[in-house]
Amino acid sequence: MNAVRNRRQLADNIVQLEVEAPRIARRRKPGQFVIVRVRDGGERIPLTIADADASVGTITLVVQVVGKTTGLLAELDVGEAIADVAGPLGRPTHIENVGTVAAVAGGIGVAPLFPIAQALKEAGNRVLGVLGARSASLVVWEDRLRSVSDRFIVTTDDGSYGRPGRVTEALSDLLMEEKVGQVVAIGPPIMMKAVAELTRPLGIPTLVSLNPIMVDGTGMCGGCRGLVGGQNRFVCVDGPEFDGHQVDFDNMMARLSAYREYEAVSLQAAAAHRFGEEGCRLAEEARRAREQ
Amino acid sequence: MPENSERPEELLRRADELTPKERMAIPRQPMPERPAEERRRDQSEVPLGFDELHAVIEACRCLECKSKPCVQGCPVGVDIPAFIRLIRQGDFEGAIAKIRECNCLPAVTGRVCPQEEQCQLHCTLAKARKDPEQAVSIGRLERFVADWERGRERPTPETKPSPTGKRVAIVGSGPAGLSAAGDLVRMGHEVTVFEAFHKFGGVLVYGIPEFRLPKEIVDDEVGRLVELGVRFEANVVVGQTVTIDELLEEEGFDAVFLGTGAGLPLFLGVPGEELIGVYSANEYLTRANLMRAYEFPKVDTPIVRAGRVAVVGGGNVAMDAARTALRLGAQEVTLVYRRSRTEMPARAEEIHHAEEEGVQFLLLANPVAILGDETGRVRALRCVRMELGEPDASGRRRPVAVPGSEFDLPAELVIVAIGNGPNPLATSTTPDLKTDSRGRIVVDPATGKTSKRGVFAGGDVVLGAATVILAMGEGRKAARAIDRFLATGEW
Ligand SMILES: Cc1cc2nc3c(=O)[nH]c(=O)nc-3n(C[C@H](O)[C@H](O)[C@H](O)COP(=O)(O)OP(=O)(O)OC[C@H]3O[C@@H](n4cnc5c(N)ncnc54)[C@H](O)[C@@H]3O)c2cc1C
Ligand code: FES
């Protein structure tokens, strides 16, 4: 059992949890993740280690509610516990001094990106930080990314905060102004794809971090595989970071939707359980509304 | 030979006086099984096991021959005629104790060992009756006494040995790790088992389905070890959470045993394997068994349910996947195997059960591509017909493709069960640990010693995907060598 030591609501549906995991806190490196199972009967899902404090033995997880399991995590209070946390998993990011690096985050992609940007900064790079979100209320960890950036731009799609527009537009401007040796982009697949398409013609090496559906996280099932350079690679052990120009994002997005219909069933069952008949009716109505 | 038609009660009364001729005439006792129609949609166990009467009568069939060829056929050398005699005498407690001298997981091996290729293959009775099917049902008798034992109050705890003060880390909680842990703790060493998953048992809990091996049996075996003082730590991925060197140098372990198994799924390498609805058998079975996806949405892990399922492979893993698919509601399950039935490596009973339950066998066929629809989901498996050519290195005739014989097998789910290699996570972070070209850890076969001082290995990580009983035997062999190493410090 891994107790929650601290909990902060970062946005409407985004929470930050500090969780006891002494062995993991001691060893983790930027780029690595954990597999968590919230409770008995729960799913195993991967979450990036956004930060860690080895002295008190905790790791920091940033969770956006997108389904059943993330919903359960977001409901945990301080003192409650996550049944299982295994890690650190995946290969750490290869950190080197390439001169100038653009660190581009989409939404809560800032959580995995921050430790990488921090390490790149410590390695002597000039760091250009770009943080994009759909709107002002979804901008999280701005201070953290800003604190390790030499230049920093925040964007929102709806223009409610910072520069209006998408991260790719801000990044495009930066690439015109500065000689960038490497781009690191972490966020929704569609955003990573757009960044990779932007840098491909410019020949700028671009690292992306993939977040497929996983089970074990140790290379045992192959469920996390994705097409990279035309080859099936296991993201949990060969990644999670890959050359963005080699990744087949369309296939990855399709695979992420594999259980969409099941997820709806699962939420419906959970609602029925919690609210009885009434919840069931509401969930059913919601489903019908979606289908129309 | 005329079969003995004596009433069972009558036979029982004279059990000790039967002549060899009379023993030989007793027909093989049937073990009740749930009918295929009833069982093919649920997770409960298929065979129901002998009752006392049938067990004792079956035990009467053993000729107690002097040469005991069955014992040679047992990878761990259980004194089979001795335990069978004890069953015949009604001393079930003595019988299970006899088995446990050599085999610490009898309820498991009684269910999953390929007995027809091991002990029962050599049975004198079968030879005398010129019919391999007439061998004494050694596996079923083993299962009977193991279940009998589980159904009772656990006897007074074994007396604790005096502590040696030495500490051993066991990596992996499959049959190899569990058996090594059991022996070492009985020798007085302090034992900790590290497991990557949240549950203990290795393939016994994530791979082999509930309907073949109820998980409570594995939990019971783990519980016994806890009572003996073994510590279990879940969610520790050795190589990632902690390295082997750290276990030895920083965490104060005097020796390490690696029983990390063969958990690296092989894929076909054909186009379309990235499609939605293509699983490795490992993933499919892990979702179903370890994560209990068959109870979804009561539990949170989903699994793709489909009407038409194609399973590629011919071993136990393929049979388990095919039978699981039936239980998850599939209408048609087709097993695609590139050789013929006689080469299928699965246990005879599994092949038989799969067929009874309605799994179709498509033999001498090999997948060349997986076809998808516009949403990226599987719609068919493209196969080519095969012919058997010259024997290959394994002695089996090599299958060769028949040109121009491609055809499409419609399926919404494809499960690839063509084998596993050792998982490299623990070894890749330990450079001084020697592995062979296929990733297996190289050991001294007599002791399980690896190339690294203080580190031993056994089970599938050494043998490649093998069997439960071999893994268990390896764990016990290594335990003896570890004990010697801890006592003498000699490598
Ligand atoms: C579906 C299926 C059906 C089978 N059916 C049969 C059968 O009917 N009869 C039979 O005899 N055999 C059968 N087998 C084979 C048999 O299960 C194996 O040979 C046996 O389990 C091997 O035991 P093991 O202890 O070596 O490894 P495993 O049982 O594989 O256990 C290894 C354990 O180590 C853990 N591990 C791996 N890496 C690490 C790490 N780095 N750190 C910590 N833990 C780690 C794994 O999670 C796992 O729990 C079957 C196998 C499968 C997959
Ligand atoms: S999650 Fe199972 S292999 Fe990567």
Secondary structure elements and pairings:
The complex is a heterodimer of chains A (292) and B (491).
Chain A: E1 2-11, E2 14-20, H1 22-27, E3 33-37, E4 44-48, E5 51-53, E6 58-64, H2 68-74, E7 81-82, E8 84-89, E9 100-106, H3 110-122, E10 126-133, H4 142-147, E11 151-156, E12 163-164, H5 167-177, E13 182-186, H6 189-199, E14 206-209, E15 225-228, E16 231-234, H7 235-238, E17 241-243, H8 249-256, H9 260-291
Parallel strand pairs in A: 9-10, 9-13, 10-11, 11-12, 13-14
Antiparallel strand pairs in A: 1-2, 1-7, 2-6, 3-4, 3-8, 5-6, 14-17, 15-16
Helix pairs in contact in A: 5-6
Chain B: H1 8-13, H2 20-25, H3 36-39, H4 52-60, H5 69-73, H6 80-88, H7 92-100, H8 106-112, H9 124-128, H10 138-150, E1 167-171, H11 175-186, E2 190-194, H12 203-206, H13 215-228, E3 231-233, H14 244-249, E4 255-258, E5 264-265, E6 278-280, H15 281-290, E7 308-312, H16 316-327, E8 332-337, H17 348-357, E9 360-363, E10 365-372, E11 378-391, E12 397-401, E13 407-410, E14 413-416, E15 420-421, H18 425-428, E16 455-457, H19 460-463, H20 468-488
Parallel strand pairs in B: 1-2, 1-4, 2-3, 4-16, 6-14, 7-8, 7-14, 8-9
Antiparallel strand pairs in B: 5-15, 10-11, 11-12, 11-13
Helix pairs in contact in B: 4-6, 6-7, 7-10, 8-10, 11-20, 15-16, 16-17
The complex binds flavin-adenine dinucleotide (FAD) and FE2/S2 (inorganic) cluster (FES).
